[in-house]
Amino acid sequence: MDERSDKKLVTAAKRGQKEAYAELVKRYYRDVFAVCLGILGNVDDAEDIAQDAMLTGFLKIRKLHKADRFIWWISQIARNLCIDLLRRKKHVKTILAELPLQSNQKNSQNQDIHKSIRQLPLELRLPLVMYYFDNKSTKKIAEKFQISHSSVCSKIKEARKQLHKLLTGREK
Amino acid sequence: MSNKCDNFKDKIAELISGTLPDSEIKAIQEHKQQCKDCAEFEQVLRAEDELLTNLFDGFGRDLQRQQDEVIKAIGCFSSTAKDRILTAIRTIIDNPVVKLAAAAAVIAFITFNYVRAINWLHELERFMDTCAVTMK
Fold it and tell me: Which of B10, B13, B79 sits opposite A16 (nearest CB)?
């Protein structure tokens, strides 16, 4: 099963083979979670939406025409669900400020950095989260989401600089 | 802070992300030896990088449980009779031999009807000729 291409797995999943879709979940859950975390900036919401996106994908798999573009397609589903959630929570900034601290933020350093990540603009936060979730491979991010490598690099550099500014409270 | 340092700090951010071309690394190393501020900046960015790595590792540890929950939930979706019939039809339709046979059937149908239409036109023509002769 591990050797099967995404295309074959998607085709099998379209025929109702749950095992094939389960294999796609194993392959791409991490990426979907990273997209959600990058957009929402909150671990609990990211978990809910990533799981929701994967289940929605299972129910809608027959609508996926280009079977080799599963990761792009499922990421779009996740992205749309995240945007829906953000719309429901109209005053996002206020809500984020009121959110309780995450259980895995054991020390104040982590609290600071997590808070700063949330403050990054979405267009910088998403590539940064993807970068740390994808073994720091900018090329993989560019391939997966079909964007230019230079654009990924420049966004990560900018995110790093802005994060530093937020953490230290000064320019550069 | 000089513009030169601004430029080097940009490069340091790229160096830590692993996206800086090898050809530019030497220039940064040389600059750091002369500039305490940039050397310090690199240390701070590396510390932040380590913090981020640890933070995301922490998030990643829980992913196995989450994906197992999704897989379990997928298993709970029971197929209805309608789903099973549709799946069987899709499996048949997806078969390349079936696709070829369907294409051949469509071509045969079109050819058969084309020949019939031509014959019908010829008959009509003959009928019209007969009518014309009778009228005369």
Answer: B79
